Amino acid sequence: MEVIHSIADLRSRIKDYRRKNDQSVGFVPTMGYLHEGHASLLRKARAQSGLVVLSIFVNPLQFGPGEDFERYPRNTERDLQLAEAAGVDLVFMPSVSEMYPSPTRTTVSVTGLTSRLCGASRPGHFDGVATVVSKLFHIVQPDQAFFGLKDAQQVAVIEQMVQDLNLGIEIVPCPILREADGLAMSSRNVYLSEEERKEALVLSQSLQKAKAFVESHTAFTPQELESLVSQHIATSSLAIIDYVEVLAYPTLEPFKNSHHTHSIIIALAVKFGKTRLIDNLILQVGK
Ligand code: AMP
Predict the structure, then answer these.
(1) Catalytic annotation present for 38
(2) What global pTM score does this model have?
(3) Which of 36, 45, 80, 166 gives a 20 to 30 Å CA spacing to 54?
(4) Could you tell me if 250 and 143 lie in one domain?
(5) CA-proximal residue: ligand 1, atom 12 (nearest)
(6) Domain end: 124, 147, 174, which one?
(7) 8 A C-beta contact, residue 264 and residue 236
(8) Residue 167 covered by a domain
(9) Dihedral angle over CA of 51, 52, 57, 58, nearest 10
(10) Does 181 map to a domain?
(11) Which residues sit with their C-beta closer than 6 Å to ligand 1?
């Protein structure tokens, strides 16, 4: 495994690989502080691609004022160990000035899909995501890129961007990895106090309740599911709901009742103290 900091070095290393091999290049973009969720993406890339490229870059563009950019957890040594064990070939770890030499005047903005959920509560977030991911795609030029459904709105945004800009990259969505008790794995879980960590279980529990409800009802409205989920989350005195929304997926459009769509997402963002957690469940609904 090789660790690379400059764009020019990464480009020439990948060009060299392409010259000597006809296998595909797989790419997993991350912000580091890697956990088993990231490892599952890397293992999938290892199984499907000839060359596995991991990027670790805490992207300032996708953090709003007052968010956790400065205190975002970092542990390079541990990240490199996990990457090596998952079979990564190249780790790209650029500095902020390498990615954004000033002045930078181009933003990639995906409209529509970004107006709800995290797009509504974190203005500018998805412009930051689309801009950095398109820059990384241009640098790496992968055949496949692997993204976790933990960030299901992000997957929808990136798929749309790839289609709109004819990037010709296969986006591979990967399932959410959870702790044994159900909490979705996240680099931000480390912020939680012991009590908050316990109470955060209401999130995955509420999604399981919603799943049971969907499975036992032939028809339902999004509002019914939203209130069931919100009520369960409200049983935790520490939880402050940012949003609980049920939409069609991947269009992220509202729908009237379950007869009007095939695939739905139950998406939530909830704060425990200063820590904002997201989780979701995507379900197929029968006619
Ligand atoms: P991040 O480092 O948080 O930007 O995440 C990098 C990639 O890992 C994104 O595609 C995430 O969706 C994915 N990811 C993060 N947490 C999980 C998880 N618990 N299960 C699966 N994928 C995840």
Answers:
(1) yes
(2) 0.98
(3) 166
(4) no
(5) 148
(6) 174
(7) no
(8) yes
(9) 160
(10) no
(11) 30-31, 37-38, 40-41, 147-148, 150-151, 174, 176-177, 184-187
Q: Which of 30, 34, 92 to mutate to test the pocket of ligand 1 (most atoms within 8 A of CB)?
A: 30
What's at 275, amino acid-wise?
T
- How many angstroms separate the alpha carbon of residue 275 from the centre of ligand 1? 17
Q: What is the mean pLDDT of each run of 10 residues along the chain (287 residues)?
A: 98 98 98 98 98 98 97 98 98 98 95 97 98 98 98 98 98 98 98 98 98 95 98 98 98 93 96 98 87
Are 102 and 165 found together in one domain?
yes
**Is 35 annotated as ligand-binding?**
yes
Cα of 216 to ligand 1 centre, how many Å?
Answer: 31
Domain that holds residue 191: 187-282
Regarding whether 36 and 148 lie in a shared domain, the answer is: yes
Contact between residue 284 and residue 262 where contact means Cβ atoms under 8 Å apart:
yes
- Residues recorded for the chain: 287
Verify that 11 and 124 share a domain, yes or no.
yes
Give the chain's domain count. Answer: 2
177 is in an annotated binding site: yes
Last residue within a domain, chosen from 151, 174, 197: 174
Q: Which of 38, 138, 232, 262 is catalytic?
A: 38
